[in-house]
Amino acid sequence: MATLGTALGCAHFYCQECIVRFIVSKLQDNVTSVTCPDQGCPGVLDLEYCRPILPYDVFHRWGKALCESVKLRDMGEDQQLEELAKNKNWRRCPSCKYYVERRDGCSYIKCRCGYAFCYNCGVRASLTSHTRHCPSCHK
Fold first, then answer.
1. Per-residue pLDDT for 56 more than 60?
2. Please, which of 7, 26, 37, 81 could form a disulfide with 49 given CB 3.0 to 4.6 Å?
3. What is the 3-state secondary structure (H, E, C) of the chain?
């Protein structure tokens, strides 16, 4: 028998074979956050804590599934940021890709990375001299 103990935040006991089979069944159901097998227990299994008892292929599959779930979550977050940027009319710096916002003034903007560009079309701007309107887009 193995205790899940502090890795789960609970004190339930299961044999190693049962824990491995439980994890495999959750992975087959595309579940990456594996909770304690005890019904209603809020404890959560940790990949690294389970490493010594997991076969290599199961450990690798669970790790890969966790990475993919993080990527997908980050892509939702990325989509939310892109939607906000679109609604706020923010632009990305052509050099560092950081979002910038122009509130007023001429169409030239200088990013925190030092790159100066036209806020409307993205054309590089001269730091020493420029006109109020961009010669490329005429805005």
1. yes
2. 7
3. CEECHHHHCCCCEECHHHHHHHHHHHHHCCCCCCECCCCCCCCECCHHHHHHHCCHHHHHHHHHHHHHHHHHHHHHHHHHHHHHHHHHCCEECCCCCCEECCCCCCCEEECCCCCEEECCCCCECCCCCCCCCCCCCCC
Neighbours of 36 (CB within 10 A): 21
pLDDT for the residue numbered 119:
85
The Cβ of residue 33 has, within 10 Å, a number of other Cβ atoms equal to 9
Q: Where are the domains of the chain?
A: 2-88, 91-139
Pairing of strands 13-14, 2-3: antiparallel
- Top-level CATH class of 2-88? alpha beta
pLDDT band at 112 (very low <50, low <70, confident <90, very high): confident
Torsion of CA 103, 109, 115, 116, to 10 degrees: 170
Cβ(113)–Cβ(93) below 8 Å: yes
Q: How far is Cα 45 from Cα 53, in angstroms, rounded to an integer? A: 12
